[in-house]
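Notebook entry, structure prediction.
Reason for the run: the old model in the group folder had no record of what sequence produced it. Starting over properly, with the input documented here first.
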Amino acid sequence: MVSTKAPEDAYTAAPFVPERAGLPALRRAAAGCRGCPLHRDATQTVFGAGAEDARVMLVGEQPGDQEDRQGKPFVGPAGRLLDRALHEAGIDPADAYVTNAVKHFKFTQAEPRKRRIHKTPTLREMTACGPWLAAELAVVEPELIVILGATAGKALLGSSFRVGEVRGALLEREIHGRPEKLVATVHPSSVLRAQDDKDRKAAYEGLVADLKVAARALS
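New structure, fully documented this time:
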């Protein structure tokens, strides 16, 4: 009997990840990833961006609406805020590799042409996309990983990760078989969601303070 099980039902990107490939080949392969059901509704795969010799890798949650439409990570409002915070902290965004734990936009939509609302990926979806992140880390071999938010932290460090418990500290952990240095902070989108100007200012200053820890680790 022939199986009718779709590739996405297995919840792993592993069969789609080429071995010993550079970033261009990984990006081309990721465009056809069917490792989980998220590809069905997303416009396209949003792979990481940056140089293979980047010293720092910034890992966020998943693409947002603008990233999904443009096919590039961190090109929306949160990305612009992140660039500003990196500059203030002393890290040139051009020297960073930016990516997400999940490569397809997960959202809810009340009806067609209505605004697409971000929906947090599940641990199963994060795990399914893990082989792509592992491949990016193997190629870039960054000196430091900056974790942006809880989803990225759980994807890299496990489901017990909590941003508030470790943010702003230099950590050393084994990730996908390699010893890595990490600094965790909030996702820049959380700064934008702050309720008023005072809270937004405090949240932004906290983000910059955490990124300064990353900058010192790279100096």
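Summary: The mean pLDDT is 94.
The old model has been moved to the deprecated folder.
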